Amino acid sequence: MTPIINSNWFKRFLLRLKHESRWLAPGTGYKRWLGLTVIGSMLLGLGLAVVILDYYRSTTSELLTPILAILSLRFLDRPIRFLLFGGLGFILILVGIWGANRSLLKPFEVGGKPVWDTLQNYRQREKGIKVVVIGGGHGLASLLRGIKAYTHNITAIVTVADNGGSSGELRRDMGVLPPGDIRNCLAALSSDEALLSQVFQYRFHSGVGLEGHSLGNLLITAMSEITGSFEEAVAESGRVLAIYGQVLPSTITNVNLVGELQENPETDTIVVHGESEITETPGKVNRVWLEPEGVLAYPPTIQAILNADLILIGPGSLYTSILPNLLVKDLTEAIHASKAEAYYICNVATQRGETDGFNGSDHVAVLEQHVQKRLFSLVLCNRNFKGELGHDTDWVVADQELHEKYRVYESDLVDDLYPWRHSSKKLAKAIMNLYEERTGPLN
Fold this sequence. Notes:
Number of helices: 18
Number of strands: 10
Low-confidence stretches: none
Mean pLDDT: 83
CATH superfamily of the largest domain: CofD-like domains
Oligomer: single chain
Order of helices and strands: HHHHHEHEHHHHHEEEHEHEHHEHEHEH
CATH topology of the largest domain: Rossmann fold
């Protein structure tokens, strides 16, 4: 005997039902609109029922009266009629909404991934923790690229002391703050890194007046002219790239980084002006400072730090990417006053001209020497020392002195292709696991 219901078909139906029922899961923001649709349909049905009932009671037609009685299932008890009509109506509403959603949302499936998954991930990240990341250079951009997979509430605070390359040229010629590090962060936080951010990062290799400049730097500079302010130009560029979070300059004052260098203990110290000059001049960096001194932080950065759930300092060039932010005194005061935990992310490798021969405790000692405060509760270090570094660099090791002074977390954080860099995914995952251990599950 052939079964009435094919078992395979029934299993597929149940699987499909389970799949589609995810739209009713908490956090999607979908149920409220479904409920509103159901209530509206009920009111519309009630209005039609009133009209039909009034007509039914007042009509004297011998033909229509029995037809209306059959259509309204008058021969059944009222509770049964309510369940039949109500259940059928609810099923039709669900099928109609489901069909409309499939038609409208089909073009928005990313890589064959169901729209529900995309929506759920977006909602989770939209409600994610508030993270403030402080630094500059490629290290900061790499971290942002990983963090945006967990939360969209990101604030990147970036140094504006750069005076080399395209940024330095635009700074001298156009009088704008250097856009280079900010451009990298905007591209890293972009919702479409596949194409739009690549265009934003494109660097001209020829052309009078264009050679060496990136399109993003030119766009931010043009936006500064149009909007009348650098900070508004950064915000508008972020909207163009549809970034997750925001990128803020640590200060909007035109500052220069100054360094005191010494080639060896027997020679006199020299003072070098400019971020790029500090890196290129031979000798050990004794200290750095900003000119003019006592510059004020950009106010939104203070607000972001005080509202943060987690503050991340680094990775990046110690003297020329991280310290230029921390030398803005009221920014450092805000970090110290914030209730958020602050993690220092130590570089994977030393940097030629800045941190030759440094280990983990050396990095921390330099920061404490300059800011005169203990800013972070944890130091995150790499422990995977496999691969060829090259580039005149050595591994940065979490030495015993660092373990004695700080809570240290070591993990495999390196990029498998470029072991002198952090892996965006490994670093972000380690940070979020640490935060979750301290505060409980994120979801």
